[in-house]
Specification:
About 25% of the residues lie in helices and about 25% in strands. By secondary structure, it is α+β, with helices and mostly antiparallel strands. The chain has two domains: about 270 residues, no CATH class; about 110 residues, Alpha-Beta Plaits, CATH 3.30.70. The strands form three sheets. Strands 11-12-8-7-1-2-3-6-4-19 form a ten-stranded mixed sheet, sandwiched between helices. The longest helix is centred in the C-terminal third of the chain and has 18 residues. About 45% of the residues are buried.
């Protein structure tokens, strides 16, 4: 058994720094590269892509990345876990296999494929058997939005990925797996942890939580003393250096920007934490109140003392559905009286919408530069604000009403208050609203499938 392994974060979301994984592979020793591409809304985007082209539906950025780093990963014995498969895991794996052939690596690596998270095709069967998939926030049964559902995926945990790694997979590609599982799986595989070792599983889960958002744990988006964080243009992504006993150190490659400090780790820990006593995953329940942090040297924070409890009998399901249409328009008003002008402009626009008889589920007016971020907590603004952006958004089930709204912003330039300095982005576009429906499903209803293919 190894004394430690290094799991490096390479992507915190689909659209993160393209060269971050390359720099993780080339910047120093690592054993695993973890790539997290999926957010809740991403699955619906991928479903739409695949409906137009059955060969799509996965994170396309993953393929040119693998072409760039795969030879180095093979040479340096670096293994990859990625949820880049989206709603077409097999298609993603086929594309990676083609990359292996193009780079002269055919027959030299094995790809693990984890599926079973996508439950779109058997939703009606589940509902018919009384599994209501109630919204975790409202209690409503899923049947109320059944005709508008775009995607439905259960969050798989680490163990199917562990199976793929145990089978010799160099690259493991999943669909909707937990962000934490992408890190936990390599640690379980290397150290032989068992399914009821709750404290160690909780520790590996927290390691995954800390690095799942990429550089957010190594100085990016860090509020604490942010002016002193060095060279964010060259920010180093975090690495979890894990030990068999469940302790680990968060660090980054030497010579990179950013920082790994106790404050930077604390800020990431509270990200999407919820109840600190019960951070629930498919693999365990982690107690964040038991986390201990200590400075272990420059850009090194040791994490220890983590405790966990047994996993629940359910998996979380991420469901997306169509929820009408929206459009957002903006105008910028300049000094003098910028805020007052923006307020009057907003009132004029609302009066014209009322005169047209347009009905909206919501009309939201914000004043960027005054109170759009903090609302009433911003207090009274100074009278000499140099510029204010009027931002108005509407939402409706009626796309026609939203389309008509988009034509009412530009006329304000010549028929409203003076000092308009910008019609940002041109006429607003009507966009479909994709809403999020979180639900729970008994674990026995989900059957993960693991395949191993030779490149």
């Amino acid at each position: 058994m190894k004394k430690k392994i290094r799991v490096a974060a390479g992507q915190g979301f689909w659209g993160d720094l393209l060269d971050a994984p390359v720099r993780q592979v080339e910047g120093g020793p690592i054993d695993y590269l973890m790539l997290d591409y999926l957010a809740e809304v991403t699955m619906s985007i991928m479903q739409k892509q695949r409906s137009r082209d059955p060969n799509t539906g996965y994170a396309k950025d993953f393929i040119p990345l693998m072409k760039q780093i795969l030879p180095a990963c093979v040479e340096r014995n670096i293994r990859v876990t990625a949820n880049a498969g989206g709603v077409n895991v097999e298609g993603c794996a086929d594309a990676v296999r083609e990359v292996a052939r193009e780079t002269g690596l055919a027959g030299k690596l094995r790809i693990g494929i984890v599926t079973g998270d996508d439950i779109m095709s058997n939703l009606d069967e589940l509902l018919g058997r009384g599994i209501k998939l109630r919204n975790m926030e409202t209690g409503e049964p899923l049947v109320t939005v059944r005709d508008r559902i775009q995607s439905a995926n259960a969050y798989l945990g680490a163990w199917p990925m562990v199976e793929a790694l145990n089978g010799g997979a160099r690259i493991v590609i999943t669909g909707r797996a937990t962000d934490t599982g992408l890190t936990l799986a390599p640690i379980i595989h290397e150290f032989g942890w068992v399914p009821d070792d709750w404290n160690r599983l909780a520790a590996g889960t927290i390691a995954g939580h800390i690095i799942e958002c990429g550089a957010q744990a190594s100085g990016g988006n860090c509020q604490y003393d942010w002016r002193s964080i060095p060279d964010l243009a060259d920010v180093g992504f975090p690495i979890a250096e894990a030990a068999p006993d469940g302790t680990f150190v968060i660090t980054k490659h030497e010579g990179t920007g950013g920082c790994v400090t106790i404050p930077s780790i604390k800020e990431q820990l509270v990200y999407e934490m919820g109840d600190p006593h019960e951070y629930i995953t498919p693999d365990c329940v982690a107690d964040f109140t038991t986390v201990h942090l200590e400075d272990a040297g420059p850009n090194r924070v040791r994490v220890y003392g983590v405790q966990g409890r047994s996993a629940t009998e359910f998996l979380k399901v991420s469901i997306s559905y169509s929820a009408g249409f929206k459009a957002v328009g903006t105008l910028v008003y300049s000094w003098p009286d910028a805020y007052e002008k923006a307020q009057v402009g907003g009132k004029i626009l609302r009066a014209r919408l009322d005169r047209l008889g347009l009905e909206f589920d919501e009309v939201l007016t914000e004043f960027v530069g005054v109170n759009a971020t903090h609302g009433a907590l911003a207090g009274e603004p100074p009278t000499d604000i140099p510029e204010v952006q009027l931002r108005v958004g509407v939402r409706s089930e009626n796309s026609g009403a939203v389309e008509r709204f988009t034509k009412e912003i530009a006329p304000l330039i010549l028929t409203g208050p003076p000092g308009v300095t910008g019609f940002a982005g041109g006429r607003p576009k009507v966009e479909e609203i994709v809403a999020y429906w979180p639900a729970l499903i008994p674990k026995e209803e989900i059957k993960p499938k693991v395949q191993l293919i030779e490149a």
